[in-house]
Structure formats: C-alpha cells, structure tokens
Amino acid sequence: MSTVIRMARRKDPYNVVQLTHEDIWDFKEVQSQSMKYNKIDINGTKINWLNIKWLRFMREDPDSVLFKYNFEEDFRKMKMTGSGERGRPIEKTKDLPRKYTGKQPISQAKKKDLLNLCKTKIISSKYHDFYKN
C-alpha cells in the first residue's frame, strides 16, 4: 500500500513512514491525567472540534496542540493542560504503554480481498508472503 501512496505523485513523491504495532502508543492514561477538553484556543476563539482537519503535536511544547480547520490557514494553538487552574499539579507520565502487544488481526473478508490483490498482481510479488502468512 505504501508503494501506491508513494507513486500517487510522480514529481516529489510522498514520503511514507511504515509503522508496526510496536510504534503505536496508548495515550489514554496520560490524557485522563493531564489533558482537559478545551473549548477555546489561546486567543480566546471558540474551538469547533468537529471541523478540525489537522492536529500537530510538537515535542518542544508538549502542553500545547496546534490545529487547523483547513489546509490553507495558519495553525492555531490550544493549551492541553490545566495551567492556571486550582488544585494539585498534574504529575507527568514518563513511560507510555504500548497500545498493542501483538499484530492486530484482520477479518477473513479483508484477507480474502488482499489475497485477491496479490493474485491479480496489484500487490507486488515481494509482499505476497507477508499477506499469505
């Protein structure tokens, strides 16, 4: 599939980063400990969560999230921690658990479709062993 996405644009092809189940982290515990549902951005503008098209998380500013409603506009910023709120300070989680401990199963119908794509040579032969096993 990554080959199809890469080849979708001849000039300046897309850079595809393939992930495995080990690359997926479980943020649920961190979210429940340290994040709050924001209704306004840092400029005081109401956030319409259903219309957000792009979220960007920056390593340099882990307590904030940049977001866009469309791809042409500049990023807006929202704070994700309750800084300024009363109460005990929130303890930061250092070690994130992995979301999955093994490969995720797929349905029989999906496997059948993938094998059919192998059979019709839409999927390159170098990937056939992966899909058959």
UniProtKB/TrEMBL annotation:
<feature type="compositionally biased region" description="Basic and acidic residues">
    <location>
        <begin position="85"/>
        <end position="98"/>
    </location>
</feature>
<feature type="region of interest" description="Disordered">
    <location>
        <begin position="81"/>
        <end position="103"/>
    </location>
</feature>
<protein>
    <submittedName>
        <fullName>Uncharacterized protein</fullName>
    </submittedName>
</protein>
